[in-house]
Amino acid sequence: MEGRSDTCEVDGDVRTNGTALSVTLVPAASWPERHEWMINPYSRRFASLRKVTVTQLQDRAAAPPCTVTHDMPAVLFGIGGYAANYWHAYADILVPLFVASRRYHGEVTFLVSNIQFRPRWLVKYRAFLQGLSNYDLVDMDGDAQVRCFPRVTVGLRLDKELSIVPELVPGGRLSMADFTGFLREAYALPRGAAASLAREPEKKPRLLLIHRGHYRRILNEPEVARAAEEAGFEAVVTELRGGGDTPEGEVEQARVVNSFDVVLGLHGAGLTNAMFLPPGGVLIQVVPYGNMEDIARAEFSEPATDMGLRYLDYSVGAEESSLMETLGPEHPAVKDPASVHRSGWDKVFELYLAKQNVRINVTRFAPTLAQALDHLRRQ
Fold it and tell me: How far, in Å, CA of 150 to CA of 12, rounded?
């Protein structure tokens, strides 16, 4: 129970009960005392999910009898929390689940709670889940069986945002390069390397400019796309909707992104798609005005580097922000962003993420595009 997450590794004679949402460790004979822990099965402990009761029994006679016996381990986790957001789906569940279960090479059963609140989530990520487990998952909310396992991992551990700390991986080192390699395998992504202009100097690398259709938009997308073309890219503007609610949609979106060498977009969950880029690709994050660099980089800078991508960002100036027009140059959000940050997250989100669009100065942006192209030239 440290860091962001609560987790418990239970080894021995382990029995689960879905309706009670309980995990019980049964002694071979007896233990001096009984212990009990409450574990949040979601990787961020402050998310509001029903907790799992983990009990170490004192007396074997008090154990519920097994109705189903499994000879492989299990991982118990909950969906919900923030998992409707595409970035959180990967950062909070899919990456930690990979860390918890990859060591078993498919010989693991997933016990999933809170399904009734996100029934389409498991459908959408079916290809991912089937890549990690050879068995049907168990809906813990409706499971009346007492299942016996030799080991159960309760809860998912989040050590680093949208990334992996190799030395903290149970059962052996894994990295984000291993994770993106698994994605290419699970989603049958064809490209394992970005364009190399050193080997193919005449080739135009492909740049995907993510279109946002609601808020936090790039208002001059055609101009930015032309600037990318003039810099030497083949530029395409498209909207990425998190793959929809079907496994086919998620896989198809991953394959689309994998066909590009560069992803460019304004800060938001859509940039999570950069994990489908081939290794050696580039992620360019446009950071909204308002001292948003630390937040934006925490979510994408180190993760992208850990994936084997080149990370670049471009910070929007006040003159490029729609806030200059809608609020005026004397408004605190424009004149003194630090004061907005002191007001708390709700104000920061409202002003800089929910109410801001940007018009990129393509002359000022040109050196960032040149850096991306130079990276591909040196590969």
Answer: 5
Give me the residue label for tokens 């189903």: 68
CA-to-CA distance for 285 and 268, rounded, in angstroms?
A: 9
Between 33-42, 100-109, 240-249, 289-298, the lowest mean confidence (pLDDT) is in 240-249
Burial 194-210 (b: 16+ CB within 10 A, else e): bbbbeeeeeeebbbbbb
Q: Cα-flanking dihedrals φ and ψ of residue 245, to 5°?
A: -115, 15
Structure tokens at 268: 């938001």
CA distance 129 to 152: 17
Which domains does the chain show, CATH number per domain?
A: 8-174 (no CATH), 206-378 (3.40.50)
Both tokens of 270, joined, read: 């859509």
Judging by DSSP bridges, how do beta strands 282-287 and 206-211 pair with one another?
unpaired
Residue 117: alpha-carbon gap to chain centroid:
19
Instruction: Compute the distance between CA of residue 98 and CA of residue 92 in angstroms, rounded to an integer.
Output: 11
Measured distance CA(233)–CA(204) in Å, rounded:
5
Q: What is the pTM of this model?
A: 0.95
Beta bridge partners of 37: 54
